[in-house]
Design a protein that fits this description.
five-stranded parallel beta sheet; Rossmann fold
């Protein structure tokens, strides 16, 4: 007798009770991501068009299960925003905040920096719903053991501006 596994990608309740913050400077992309999350049962999807705006959405009382952030934003790109979280520069955000990076680039330098910053997931646009939800579920299932803040500060991110 074989045990049947539930296909969580088809499960419209896979994200019930979960809260997300979507950060992208393109409103259309925010709408697409929010619709995918809603389809799979997300309770809340807050929206911000920049890293600075995202910081205004977060407080000790209002947190999110996952921040989903575009790489290609100005003045602070997604990698720099993640770095600021991992180094503890924002008291209102826990250093181990789950973070998924969205990008139109598959550039190895961006991928390496994201991994060095212990990103919880990485999705290249255009976003395929099944792939995206699998990435979200993996991010929700675990958190990496964080390095010391100084280790994250030493990760070079300024060279990545050439991809913006």
């Amino acid at each position: 007798m074989t045990e049947q596994r539930k296909d969580t990608v088809r499960d419209r309740t896979a994200l019930n009770g979960r809260r997300f913050l979507i950060v992208d400077d393109h409103a259309y992309m925010i709408d697409v991501i929010a619709e995918i999350l809603k389809h799979f049962g997300a309770d809340e999807t807050a929206r911000a068009e920049s890293a600075d705006a995202a910081l205004l959405c977060i407080s000790p009382r209002v947190g999110y299960d996952v921040i989903i952030c575009d790489f290609n934003m100005k003045p602070l790109n997604g990698i720099q925003f993640l770095q600021s979280i991992r180094t503890g520069k924002h008291r209102e955000i826990k250093r181990d905040q789950r973070f998924i990076l969205l990008t139109g680039h598959g550039e190895m330098d961006v991928v390496r920096a994201a991994k060095a910053l212990d990103v919880n997931g990485y999705v290249v646009k255009p976003v395929a719903p099944d792939t995206f939800i699998k990435t979200v579920q993996r991010a929700l299932d675990g958190n990496p053991a964080l390095k010391q803040p100084g280790d994250y500060e030493r990760i070079p991110t300024s060279d990545l501006k050439r991809f913006q």
